[in-house]
Amino acid sequence: MTDLKERIIETVDRAKKGTLDRREIEKALDLKTSGDFAVFSRTMDELEEDTVLIRTRQNKYLTRKQAGLIEGVLSVSRKGIGFIDREGEESIVVPVSDRADALHGDTVLVQQRKGTDEGTVIKVLKRGKQHYTGTFELTTRGLHCTVDSDRIQEGTYRVRIPKDIRPIEGLKVELAVEKYGTPLRLVVERVLGHKDDPGVDISAVLADHDIEAEFPEAVMKEANAYEQSVSEEETEGREDLRNVITVTIDGDDSKDFDDAVSIEKIPEGWLLRVSIADVSHYVTEGSALDEEAYKRGTSVYVLDRVVPMLPHVLSNGICSLNPQEDRLANTVEMMIAPDGTTVNYRVYPSVIRSDERMTYANVNKIFHGDEALKERYAHLGSLFADLRACARMIRRRRESEGAMEFESTECVIKVNEQGKPVSIERAERGEAEMMIEDFMIAANVAVADLMKKQSFPALYRIHEDPETKRIKDYQNLAYRLGHKLIVQAGSVTPKELRTYLESVKNDPEYPVLSKMLLRCMQKAKYDPVCVGHFSLAEEEYLHFTSPIRRYPDLIVHRMLRKYYFEYGRHTEDLAKDREKMKDYAIQSSLKERNADDAEWDVEDMKKAEYMIDKIGTNAEGIISSVTSFGFYVELPNTVEGLVSIGSLKGDYFRYDPETYSVIGERTKKTYTIGQKVTVKVVGASKETSTIDFEIAEPKKEKKTYSKNSNNRKNSSKKTDYRRSAQKHTRGRTSSGGRRNGGKKR
Fold first, then answer.
1. What is the pTM of this model?
2. Strands (E), 296-341
3. Is the N end or the C end of the chain the one with fewer CB atoms within 10 Å?
């Protein structure tokens, strides 16, 4: 059926636009039997129903491309205006009147108007959300349930409240979609709790992103059926590494350990083993566990909780490489030369037994000479010294080839028992964290190389070259900041960009230059075709090392088992599995973005909540981005706030996109990207996740007044009071969403 669909589309696409009717397509395909004609008729109906083919009034057929239809995911702003982002091309703007009943996150078909960047939604292909959250609010009209999302305008939806729900002011609820359309029909599905109860705010964000903490009964039944120990029968056919010194190294709070490392110093360099939990042994294709893992796509990590891809009985139990427990794994064994090059590798199923559960903190302390810890882990011999030496050479080799490192935008938010943020700090990575990253990248590259050479079905992690226009815009920015980026003729290379970043690393503007370069990069995603990973400077790359928390990794393990470890036993499934990879890639990329959005939304909300107590205080920061409505200032702890252009005093300021600046018309006072400024916190809202700054006024010297100056003093106080009131009542431009690119490989 799939082949026939592709043949039909190709036939219509090759023909002159709008010239083929159904009979002419049928003739071009040279169909023979009555069965062929019946299948053709059904396939044409499906293609037309899915708007893959469009029938004209003259009963001629067009492909989407011929009809000028563009498929994309609709993003809706707070004002209701829609956008369809396209890689390498300008976004299509969808005005409110042209959105039909399409919602934020829906996959839609848009008809672009000739000669403009505007379009009209023709059809919703796939709904992006099935659930929303709402809050009961007391208004002049009584107690009403208001949808929390500011991308759904009031008056465009209706909420039905079942009889068993007892609404009170401030109650947060999860809403299910009963019927799409205008208005959107919603029903209260479950109560999340009062908005001021600890943890309800985060639960609401997760629910709003359709992230469900509980697992269906069928899934739990399958998970609980597995024994929590490995039988000898299960170890048959696996290499026994139980006597090889092996450790896991993770964060202090980690409970699911899906990777372990061991190393031997050999004359040729090092023999490095990266062993990854064999989740595919337990989560089999087509099982309830597999279907739920596909649906979730990834584990979601938000502050004080984890919503796992797999039930805890698996993720923290039999699949986790817990210390002193036999565990099934798939091992990548690499011979690393003294210069950090992987000379050769082997990939095989294994059984391991982790000797210790190590933490990044303790390994870093060992690296810094902590004698007590060195004594405590003396039984591991030279393990950590050998791992450190090997990782340093791997990293040196990667850096020499152009692998890029951007300024970290991650932070650590600590909350108290009530869920209130008490501190925010920029996340720091020690040598232990970088060491494990180097080993995981090396293992991922080796498996990608194997899958590509053998032409096995696989999901690759791809990161395409940055667009030429974006690099040219960045060159202009760098020049304005006094750091010229020189790119040779042709497309830019990772090595050129890495060399540039290294050259500015010690300059004050480095954080902004690094962040802005990161924004120039394409988004990494999953794809069945291996096109390389630009920022890692690798020609082959995939995700293999985290099958407990990422579905693409689980698929790679499954394909390894099916086509490599069990060589020749499943060749009849090759075509079918290659086709499945397309769907897996789309679903996995979509779920990754959804999880990122949820994590960032929680982070933005908690940052805003943290800054509420800081209103009225001053802080020094750096201008991280400039827009037509103002500029964002980032503080050292990664908190960002908006200085609205209307709050700037002493002049009329305008936005200059050429210089990434806001400039005063009369005074020529300039605020530009990368500039250090002192700001005053004037507003913060947990509900809208916004933080507002104003430029702090310089302190004035105290004046000595004569006895007759009382009236002047009183007048001055009144003026200052009015200005203060204006600061807090002035309309603010909302800031929301994630402005910083993530650093996911």
1. 0.86
2. 300-302, 305-307, 326-336
3. N
Report the range of poorest mean pLDDT among 113-117, 363-367, 539-543.
113-117
Taking a C-beta distance cutoff of 8 angstroms, is the pair 211, 179 a contact? no
Alpha helix segments (H runs only) across 562-685: 574-612
Q: Would you report the helix, strand and coil content of the chain in percent, each value rounded to 5?
A: 35, 30, 40
- Distance of alpha carbon 653 from alpha carbon 660, whole angstroms: 13
Mention every residue, 6+ apart, whose C-beta is less than 8 A from residue 400: none
The DSSP bridge partners found for residue 670 are: 663
Reported as a pLDDT band with limits 50, 70 and 90, residue 737 is very low
Nearest to 211 by CA among 593, 686, 585, 586: 593
The three-state secondary structure class of 679 is: strand
CA distance 480 to 490: 23
Q: Could you give the CA distance from residue 280 to residue 685 in angstroms, rounded to a whole number?
A: 45
Residue partners of 675: CB distance under 8 A and separation at least 6? 622, 623
DSSP state of 701: P
Cis peptide, bond prior to residue 338, ω within 30 of zero: no
Contact call for residues 335 and 274 (beta carbons, < 8 A): no
Inter-residue contact 64 to 14 (CB < 8 Å): no
What is the rounded average pLDDT of the residues 543-548? 98
Cα(725)–Cα(682) distance, integer angstroms: 11
Inform me whether the pLDDT recorded for 736 exceeds 90. no
H/E run at residue 560: helix 551-560
For 726, counting Cβ atoms within 10 Å of its Cβ (0-12 exposed, 13-18 middle, 19+ buried), the class is: exposed
Q: Give the closest residue to 552 by CA, choosing from 564, 543, 561.
A: 543
Highest mean pLDDT, choosing among 40-49, 273-282, 465-474: 273-282
Question: What is the spatial distance between Cα 592 and Cα 108, in angstroms, rounded to a whole number?
Answer: 20
Partners of 136 in beta bridges: 145
Helix H or strand E encompassing 713? helix 710-729
In this structure, are residues 570 and 450 in contact, taking their beta carbons and an 8 Å threshold? no
Element (H, E) at 630: strand 630-634
User: What distance in Å separates the CA atoms of residue 673 and residue 631, rounded to the nearest whole number?
Assistant: 8
Give kind and range of the element (H or E) at residue 449: helix 431-454
Q: What angle separates helix 288-296 from helix 551-560, to the nearest 10 degrees?
A: 130
Closest to 512 (Cα-Cα) out of 608, 661, 406, 600: 406
User: Residue 375 is inside which H or E element, if any?
Assistant: helix 371-376
Q: Nearest Cα to 431, choosing from 402, 392, 480, 399?
A: 392
Q: What is the pLDDT of residues 230-254, one digit of tens each?
A: 999 999 999 999 999 999 999 998 9
Q: Backbone phi, then psi, for 273, in 5-degree steps?
A: -115, 125
- According to DSSP, residue 281 is labeled G
